[in-house]
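tool_call: predict_structure(chain=1)
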Amino acid sequence: MSTEILIIDDNADIRLILNELIKDAGYKTRIAANYNQALTEIDKKLPDVAIIDVKLDKGDNDGIELLNHIKNKNKDIPVIIISGHANIEMAINSLKSGAFEFIQKPFDKERLMNFVNRAVENFILKKENKNLQSKLFHSFELIGKSSNIVSIRDQIKKLSLSESRVFISGPTGSGKELISRKIHKNSKRSRGPFIILNGALLDVKKYEQELFGEEKNDGSISYGALEKATGGVLLIDEVTEIPLETQSKILRIVIDQKFKRINGNHDIKVDVRIICSTSKDIKKEIKDGNFREDLFHRLNVFNINIEPLSSRIEDIPLLIEYFLENICKTYNITKFNIKDNNYLLNYSWPGNVRELRNLIERIAILSPGNDSTQILNIIKESLTKSEIETFSVTENLSIPLREARENFEKEYLTNQLKKFGGNISKTADFVGMERSALHRKLKLLGVKEFN
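tool_result:
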């Protein structure tokens, strides 16, 4: 499908010139002669690129209003602003509002087409990158054999059959969004939208606008996340970051199943399944007065807690193999092996599964030739510190050798147990000890065995 460019100008001669120039370059065009026509065209179907005159028939800056309308719908669409009444302030304001370029009338045709071609390239690049990232993300499964992951997979199956609200806790990068997507994908709402509202990324003043939407003075509507998610799932990520005043309104929505847009007079019924997530200690946030306890109990109908990757080391080899297979296929790279996993198994993974996935992707891009030395160097450079390195030598210079050795043995055997999921036989084989001898050593060091 060829790129489509929307031309918005109240001057018929300018529209004709632009239309001929752009069609000659091989692009499709749509045309609007005034503000209302432009609004209709934008709402009917978003263009790939828009060229908008600043001043149309509605006011001095109605072109900027159309720019904002497009950006509210899709911030990635490049918009070129043109004006016959240009000044520096107008140019700066349009660029601040998100314009891709600003050009003054009468314009040089070659310069304008250079802007158009660059805008198209920019849009295609962003679209391809988004598609690639989406393909990477959506193809991922919840991989692991740890008891935590096995339990979560079972919970997802059960939750997919219900409409219950879900509260997911876990550190950043551990897979909270993936769990939410799996619940959506397996539920009867799977054909509906999956909308994410990230509480940590929003401007404090825009929470309610992003959530409820807004009815503007000109009659146009900016739809919020609740309406965008109608018939589907709304994930409120990092829900603990939402201000208390907005929390009280969310509580009202959960109870009444309806809301009003900002400046709106009519109630809008809610048909959304709400899933919330946080990387913070929710009990502490409630105790500190940062999160409403009554809202938590309403949202926490069903709770899922995903543990950090460092607590489920037995999942790491499976994740490495899975990401290698998936990423190499996506980038059309011959699958390679990571022969020495010790650095990866002993690393603390502060960024959790996301950090591991990014590392495998980095290796795939930087070392596609299966050069084991280069791969190991990339791993060493990428990992800031390993579990072994966290055992500080300087701290142990002041204690007797026997005690330092016991400290090391305790930490070493604890990590090996984690690596093999508490399996004594496998751990004993790996460290080169008899099973009974390992039992005695663990008891002597005070290391608790686990299953």
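agent: The CA atoms of residues 256 and 270 lie 9 Å apart. Proceeding to next step.
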